[in-house]
Amino acid sequence: MKQLNLILFLFISFSISGQTINQFDESGKRHGIWKKNFDNTKVLRYEGQFQHGKEVGTFKFYKNIKGQSVLTASKFFNENDHTAEVTFFSSKGKVISEGKMNGKKFIGKWKYYHNNTDKLMTVEHYNEDGDLHGKRLVFYDNGQVAESAYYQFGKLEGEAKWYSLKNVVLKHFFYKNGELHGVSKFYNPKGELIAEGIYKNGKKHGVWKYYENGELTEEKDFSHKKKAS
Fold this sequence. Notes:
It holds the Pfam family MORN_2. This is MORN repeat protein. Helix content is 8%, strand content 59%. The chain is mainly beta. A hairpin with a 5-residue loop joins strand 13 and strand 14 (169-176).
């Protein structure tokens, strides 16, 4: 009798545990804990939990590297919408980038890191449509700003600067609707002006001036340049 009860207990336990994995609710929506492997393998591709078709809590996603599951991303889903706090990892477990997503769209502030270090490399901002929108900064691995620019609805807009490792401005541009437009200046690593002029709708316009050792050496007039036929 005891042996029969033990068999029944194991059978029921196995059935219950089986029902908690990869199941659907009455409406045919995924519900409960789900785990999926890469096709025709036993290598885990993702794991997480659904609540009547919606992802909840933390999901983990993996790469198949030589037959081993290696964590590539984690997503913590908001209960009230489809947004998630996301972290991407290298194959060695280092954080590559982190930010927020809505479905497949990047939204809000995103941070990216230099290889083999936790030093910040890039900071970007995205709008609700997944377009770059706002200030974008790129850093050298010592923390010094390398690039500074602004985006509006996915296109460069306004002032942009590039810096040397010693914080010397190398390029100073202005953009309009994604194209160079306005005064542009180029400097050497010493901070000396080497060229300046105006861009108009992405093309050089008017008189450009070129310098060596602080002295004007050449002028070029682009006002009457014709389009190549």
